[in-house]
Amino acid sequence: MTTAQVVFSVALGSIALLITAFALYVISSTAWGNRWVRRRDGGGPSGGRTR
Question: Is the full-model pTM beyond 0.70?
Answer without folding.
Answer: no
